[in-house]
Amino acid sequence: MITYIDGPEVRITENDGIFVDVEFYHTKEKKTGLEPHRLFPRSGMNKYIALLDENGDQVAVIRNIDTLIPESKEVLQKALDDYYMIPRITRFIKMTEKFKIWMWTAETDKGVITFEIRNHIASVKPLYDGRVLIRDANDNRYEIPDYRQLDKNSRKMLLPKL
């Protein structure tokens, strides 16, 4: 049975890396080594976070992490940020196309990267708020927080693909 967490009835503490421990105040029950996952990773950044046990089974769902006590929210946010570490593209340096394979070199908040995409229609997803999600040929993900904030040259490289 899945438990829904609606607010400060739990305390979440760090375990190891992306894992957390959850203590339920009302039952005094403690679950350890849970792995948080976003049920809606594109649209629900802070809502509906599943907590999975070591077998990958859902044991709890946090409806909204903003309702947690600040210490728990901070621990959970760090675990999610580590798990969903997505480099944010700040500008494009170079783009080439050969045989319908696009090779991009970009500057990100994690350093300069080069990646390829094979199908720009399926791999480059603009979202309503100006964000753009990119999935490369190796299934790595990248994000442009707001394509409108890119420099002119970077927008020029990206916009024909949107």
Enumerate how many helices there are, as a single number: 3
End-to-end C-alpha gap = 43 Å
What spatial form do the alpha-carbon principal axes imply?
elongated
Percent range of helical residues = 10-25%
Indicate the low-confidence ranges by residue numbers: none
- Lateral strand order in the biggest sheet: 1-6-5-4-3-2
> In percent, how much strand structure appears in the residues?
35-45%
Task: Give the total of beta strands.
Answer: 12
Which structural class do you get from the secondary structure elements?
alpha+beta
Q: Mean pLDDT, as a whole number?
A: 89
Task: Name the features.
OB fold (Dihydrolipoamide Acetyltransferase, E2P), 162 residues, single chain, three-stranded antiparallel sheet, six-stranded mixed sheet, alpha+beta, 12 strands, elongated, 3 helices
Structure description:
This protein is of the alpha+beta class. The chain folds into two domains: 3-83, no CATH class; 89-161, Beta Barrel (OB fold (Dihydrolipoamide Acetyltransferase, E2P)), CATH 2.40.50. It has three helices and twelve strands, in the order ββββββαβββαβββα. It has helices spanning 70-83, 120-123, 152-158; strands at residues 3-5, 10-14, 20-24, 30-38, 47-52, 58-64, 89-98, 101-108, 111-117, 124-126, 132-135, 141-144. Strands 1-6-5-4-3-2 form a six-stranded mixed β-sheet, covered by helices on one side. The radius of gyration is 19 Å and the shape is elongated. The mean pLDDT is 89.
